[in-house]
Amino acid sequence: MDVSRIDPEEVLVDAATVEPGDGDVSVDNIDEALLRGSSSSNAGDQDKVLVSIRIRPTDSTCAWTSPNHQTIHLAPGSATPGKASAAYNFDNILTGTPNKPIYAAVARGHVRAAMEGYNALIFAYGQTASGKTFTLSGDPDEPGIIPRAMRDVFAYIRATPDREYLLRCSYLEIYNEAIHDLLGAGAGGPQVQILGNGILAPLREEVITSLAGVRAVLARGGGNRRTASTDWNERSSRSHSVFRMVVESRERGSAGANERAPSPLPDRATTPSMNGRSTPGLGGSRDTGGPRLQARDGRSVQVSTLSLIDLAGSERATSDKDRTREGKYINTSLLTLGSVIGTLAENAAKGKTDHVPFRNSKLTRLLQPSLSGNARISVIATLNPSPSAITESTSTLLFAQRIKRVALKAEKKEVVDTDALLERYRKEIEDLKQRLADRETAMGAEGGKGAGATGGLRRRLSAREQVDEGRAMRDLNGRIQQLTKLILTSATVEDSAGAESRPVSPTKALLPQDGEGARKVDFDLAPYELQQELLAARRELEVRANQILSLEAALEARPSTSHRALSPDAEDADADGDDKDRVIADQARAIQLLEAALAAPTYAPPELEEKLAASEEWAKELARELEREKRARAKLEEERRALVGFVSKFDSLGLGGLGAALALPPPTRLPAPSSYAPRAETLVEENESGDDDEGEVADMLDDSPVKMAIEMSMSMQVGPSLMEEEWSVVEDDGDADVSFEYHAPAPHGMSKFSKGLGMGRSRLSKGEKENVPTRS
Ligand SMILES: Nc1ncnc2c1ncn2[C@@H]1O[C@H](COP(=O)(O)OP(=O)(O)OP(=O)(O)O)[C@@H](O)[C@H]1O
């Protein structure tokens, strides 16, 4: 069976499918106290750690006494004579052998809290041989907290018909400052790394669907624990052990218990390991592997962990060298735990934020997420009742007092639809990519047909179809990119929320590649550093994925060359065939080019650019010429008026006979500006060749003041007029141009007008002009 492909929907546990097992979780056997009241009923103050002291029973003298089950102090016989014995207050002072009341007092509320969505941590702390393992695991006659907790987990599920659950568990130990997977294959269990914020990798998880299944897992993992006989304990735990269950749950759908057909899955109870899978990690309130329960139909998923820890006991040096070495590691990690707890308590009491040395041991690194506050914590401090162990017991009591002051703020973790959404996005992306690939294949096949088939069997995509096809492919690519961005955003948000706020070192974010693209990870880095690097790596991957998608989109947007109708070979092959198809194909290509040009407004073919620039230049030149023409027109009008006045005056003085003496030479053509010359030339030629122009000029003069002045002067019969003389000059010299020496170049429109006027006096030099009155 491939355990890596477990469908979480197939391993759900609910009230209908949970197995009664050996009767422990039958409805009649469910402890009402588990379900009654709130989870805080035996969890003490929810903001504080629940701290209980358990004194191991003894047949001889007990050094301690408890007057009211919450206070403990040295028994009169054990206290220093004449010195008042310190009294310590806790939530519970427990004695005796039965584990059931112990469980009820220190663990049941926390188990229920875990089932309700809070992280919960229960651990036993104490000197070697003080009763930690007996309290956590117990024996067949007196099952301890762990088996009782498991029984309650299934009992809780059985009594909660409106929810369905996915349970996963792992079991590890910290031995000589190395973490080993107790459920992993191989002697001693494979080593596990803490990646950051409690994430463990690689760690095997077992999906649990029954009480029998979890018992089998516990037996297997417990069997792998390192124990040895010491001077104090015949079977002493030489490691800290951590049994952890991840509880995921969601409300059942509207169909309730009938939504899913009851499926006892008989093999699951007896072969839990077959339901397990190797996972990249599991830690704290978040994990990175194993089958995950998905939020569905608006139903959020609650995720919580229940951690049950049996610490190794502090001890003095023993007579055995190996045990002494183990003892040193144990003591060191317990000292670190003490110092971490001390700092946390101090911070909480004084509102400080002093650095907490979580990194100083694997144990504290592992416990960091919980000790940082996001867990309900219950501690059972076990005491050796012997008067000879008073020092160690006092030390245990002081540790218990300190942890009592640690502040907690556990919060439920509700996974809304994010994960489900991400999953849906990923699936959609896969579908879209598949559709893209199918379209590409189809296009290729159409092209292939065009090249190889003959006659009417061929069918190419029409130009319209090609355009539609291109658009559809672009749409698909756009959607893929949009979804990819959504995934990136969601992942970033999710990861940022769990990460410590610390800037990512750019050099560390770009770790060197190793071998076949594997990313080197330095496990000695701080958890948050590793986490940052993981995030950076993930982002880098997403960026790369986006780049690939963009390139794919760009490729798709290019004019198709795969279509045979557009390839030269295809054209050759079809030379005797369908010209219409070729024309259509050409047009399709033209449309694609135009679309590309439209999509990229900055693009324009070079020849178009040149034409545009030339047109603009011509328009500017035209505007300048028009302006010049306007000015010349105004000037001419002024001169005409002055001339009319002058001639009138001249004639009235009877000096008309001087007209011949004053005759001016015919005007000469002046060079026009180069850009304007060809056009002016054309117009001059037009004027010179067209008789109608003369008529037009005459028409123009019909009502002109000049003509009126001429007529007036002629009617006065005072000799030939200067105007008549000039008029005849113009008539005699058809080639004469109208340019004015003082106003070059002459606009083409003006030439027509001036020629018509035949204003030979325009040859007046600047000096001469100055003698001409400017106003009539
Ligand atoms: N409450 C108890 N009632 C009866 N027997 C107990 C009790 N607590 C402990 N014992 C017995 O005391 C012995 C030592 O207990 P245990 O192994 O649980 O100690 P420990 O603290 O886990 O020691 P270590 O740290 O060395 O593993 C065991 O034989 C256990 O059965």
Task: Provide key terms for this protein.
alpha+beta; 776 residues; Kinesin; 14-stranded mixed sheet; 23 helices; binds adenosine-5'-triphosphate; elongated
- Average pLDDT level: 67
**Helix fraction bin:** 40-55%
Which hetero compounds are present in the coordinates? adenosine-5'-triphosphate
Q: What's the number of extended β-strand segments?
A: 23
CATH topology of the domain at 27-252 and 289-317 and 325-412: the name is Kinesin
Sequence stretches where pLDDT stays below 50 over 5 or more residues: 255-289, 450-458, 490-524, 560-577, 656-706, 712-776
**CATH class assignment of the domain at 27-252 and 289-317 and 325-412:** Alpha Beta
CATH superfamily grouping of the domain at 27-252 and 289-317 and 325-412: Kinesin motor domain
Structure description:
By secondary structure, the protein is α+β, with helices and mostly antiparallel strands. Among the domains are: 343 residues, Kinesin motor domain (Kinesin, 3-Layer(aba) Sandwich), CATH 3.40.850.10; 26 residues. Helix content is 45%, strand content 14%. It is built from 23 helices and 23 strands. The strands form five sheets. Strands 1, 2, 6, 7, 8, 9, 10, 11, 12, 15, 16, 19, 20 and 21 form a 14-stranded mixed β-sheet that branches. A three-stranded antiparallel β-sheet has the order 3-4-5, covered by helices on one side. Strands 13-14 form a two-stranded antiparallel ribbon. It is elongated and about 160 Å long. Adenosine-5'-triphosphate binds next to helix 4 and strand 14.
